[in-house]
């Protein structure tokens, strides 16, 4: 295993290791939720990662306390990153989890550096920071506390219900900085969920997170991702999903069609061959030009979802708009009643 090549991308790996090979402790836990999973505890050298300039992501900095993910989503684009460690991008990605145990202290040190300008930090953009491992390692409370103490804006994207454990910290952070929360729910079809996202909470449990955050005054958008061609893209399926998202009180919904990067593509196509062999040729044609579905298909899905969002009273997100929980306005000097406004619409990280 190439621990000296543990970097966010191959170019970074060529420059410097993120931690020493002798700083790795490998553990297994004989409990039902962790059976068959190996954890590689590391002391990382850095934790704030710069997004490559060629990326389509609308943010520049990320924090990823874990690598590999027990959500085991068959389509996960981050699978390729496990190959940098000579780890398997299939079952290995689902069961060999790298835990950066010093992530909170590293982040606090980074935020206190004179060189840091307080830019937005996105989390959950590579693997889910609220996957099952977080229940044991509890890295996120320290991470959120550091961001709160430095009033540094941040956003979290998750499929995990464990985020509600940190609700008080999120509320505290939202008092001093911009906080954006999004939950990923691509579909509400249970049969599809059980086969493509076997390690995640059920879609309705994720929507319960949206509902709870809304009830606590923390606006939460939904990333409707992925919309899976030929399996989750029928009009009735899209309608059921958007209707459920609206009922949960989401401030916005943003559809994202399945994309199949190298590493994820091979694993997903093997899954497709096993579960839906009649679709293999259709996928080969649809994704013949690369990782992304054709523009005409993406526009069709986006248009349908936006129409449904308008029908159900939630707006699509607009490019360039950060999803955020706004800081409260100062109290008026006069003892007049304060008019309560609705939540700010959030948008895709």
3D structure, described in words:
By secondary structure, the protein is an alpha/beta fold. It contains twelve helices and twelve strands. The strands form two sheets. Strands 3-4-7-8-9-10-11-12 form an eight-stranded mixed beta sheet. Strands 1-2-6-5 form a four-stranded mixed beta sheet. Helix 5 (140-149) runs parallel beside helix 6.
Task: List the main descriptive attributes of the protein structure presented here.
349 residues; disordered C terminus; 12 strands; alpha/beta
For this structure, the quaternary state is: single chain
Question: What structural class should be given to the helix and strand makeup?
Answer: alpha/beta
Large-scale geometry: globular
Q: N-to-C terminal Cα separation, in Å?
A: 33 Å
Radius of gyration: 20 Å
Largest sheet: 8 strands, mixed
Strand line-up in the sheet with most strands: 3-4-7-8-9-10-11-12
Task: Calculate the mean pLDDT score and round it.
Answer: 86
Low-confidence stretches: 7-18, 318-349
Task: Please count the helical segments.
Answer: 12
Task: Give the topology string: H per helix, E per strand.
Answer: HEEEEEHEHEHHEHEHHEHEHHHE
What is the number of strand segments?
12
Note the beta-strand portion.
Answer: 15-25%
């Amino acid at each position: 295993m190439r621990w000296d090549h543990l970097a966010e991308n191959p170019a970074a790996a060529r420059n410097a290791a993120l931690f020493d090979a002798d700083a790795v402790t490998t553990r297994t836990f004989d409990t039902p939720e962790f059976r068959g999973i190996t954890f590689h505890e590391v002391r990382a050298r850095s934790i704030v990662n710069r997004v490559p300039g060629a990326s389509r992501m609308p943010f520049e900095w990320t924090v990823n306390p874990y690598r590999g993910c027990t959500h085991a989503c068959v389509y996960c684009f981050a699978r390729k990153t496990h190959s940098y460690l000579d780890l398997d991008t299939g079952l290995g990605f689902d069961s060999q989890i790298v835990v950066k145990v010093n992530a909170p202290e590293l982040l606090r040190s980074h935020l206190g550096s004179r060189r840091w300008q307080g830019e937005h930090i996105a989390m959950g953009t590579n693997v889910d920071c609220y996957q099952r491992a977080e229940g044991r390692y509890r890295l996120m409370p320290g991470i959120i506390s550091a961001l709160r103490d430095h009033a540094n804006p941040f956003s979290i994207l998750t499929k995990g219900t464990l985020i509600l454990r940190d609700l008080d910290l999120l509320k505290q952070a939202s008092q001093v900085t911009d906080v954006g929360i999004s939950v990923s729910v691509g579909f509400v079809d249970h049969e599809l969920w059980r086969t493509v996202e076997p390690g995640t909470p059920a879609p309705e449990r994720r929507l319960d997170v949206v509902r709870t955050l809304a009830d606590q005054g923390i606006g939460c958008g939904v990333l409707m991702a992925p919309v899976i061609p030929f399996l989750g893209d029928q009009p009735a399926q899209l309608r059921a999903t958007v209707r459920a998202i609206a009922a949960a009180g989401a401030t916005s919904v943003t559809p994202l069609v399945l994309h199949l990067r190298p590493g994820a593509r091979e694993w997903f196509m093997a899954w497709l061959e096993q579960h839906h062999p009649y679709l293999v040729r259709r996928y080969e044609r649809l994704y013949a030009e690369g990782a992304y579905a054709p523009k005409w298909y993406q526009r069709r899905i986006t248009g349908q979802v936006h129409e449904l969002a308008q029908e159900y009273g939630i707006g699509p997100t607009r490019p360039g708009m950060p999803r955020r929980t706004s800081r409260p306005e100062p109290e008026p000097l006069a003892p007049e009643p304060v008019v309560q406004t609705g939540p700010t619409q959030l948008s895709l990280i």
